[in-house]
Design brief:
This protein is mainly alpha-helical. The protein has one domain. Helices cover 63% and strands 4% of the residues. It is built from seven helices and two strands. The protein has a two-stranded antiparallel sheet with strand order 1-2. The longest helix is centred in the C-terminal third of the chain and has 26 residues.
Length: 190
């Protein structure tokens, strides 16, 4: 879902031009960035789904801190608070929401492996709608996010460009192409 997360960030940039694009891209994968050192330390982990060879959507992720509902909310709030210092309250709220959007998108595609409380405290049911079980559908949803995000970003760029430069933007087409290639590579690795 990496390409889908970036597609959402590009779409937000189209609606919130005052927020730096690099900050939106960082925010959209912040949960995974925090996950990486916890994975390396053995605090969080992932397993291949039995009967598969791994790949796109074929993992059960034990990200019991970074990808718990409460953990994601805390990480989103902290990111938003830090971002509000240089860019203001509105940008902080937007960036915090983009961090949390990662969890919402993961909820759609993940198997039921997202805990509610950090460390799966209380052994509550895990959440996830499991769209990854249907690779073609999950790829279509991700592609839709990439295309919609690239289109919103391109449209905003054209509208804010000087009138004499408003024409089809090669950079926008390259961004869309890069998203599609990333999605294709994800699908081929599966």
């Amino acid at each position: 879902m990496i390409a889908g997360h970036f597609g959402l960030a590009a779409g937000v940039k189209g609606r919130q031009p005052q927020v730096p694009l690099w900050a939106l891209m960082l925010a959209t994968v912040w949960l995974d960035i925090v996950f990486a050192p916890l994975l390396a330390a053995g605090v969080e982990s992932f397993d291949t789904v039995p009967g598969t060879s791994g790949g796109y959507g074929n993992a059960i992720i034990h990200a019991d801190y970074t990808h718990s509902l409460v953990g994601a909310l805390v990480l989103a709030a902290l990111f938003g608070l830090v971002a509000a210092r240089p860019w203001g309250r509105q940008a902080g709220v937007v960036l915090g929401a983009v961090v949390f959007s990662h969890w919402l998108l993961d909820l759609i595609v993940h198997r039921a492996d997202l805990p509610i409380l950090p460390g799966n405290a209380g052994d509550l049911p895990r959440l996830g709608f499991g769209l990854w079980k249907v690779p073609a559908a999950s790829i279509l949803v991700e592609l839709a996010l990439v295309v919609a995000g690239a289109w919103l970003y391109w449209r905003a760029a054209v509208q804010t460009a000087p009138a004499d430069t408003r024409r089809p933007n090669l950079l926008g087409l390259l961004v869309l192409g890069a998203g599609v290639v990333t999605l294709a590579v994800d699908a081929l690795v599966a």
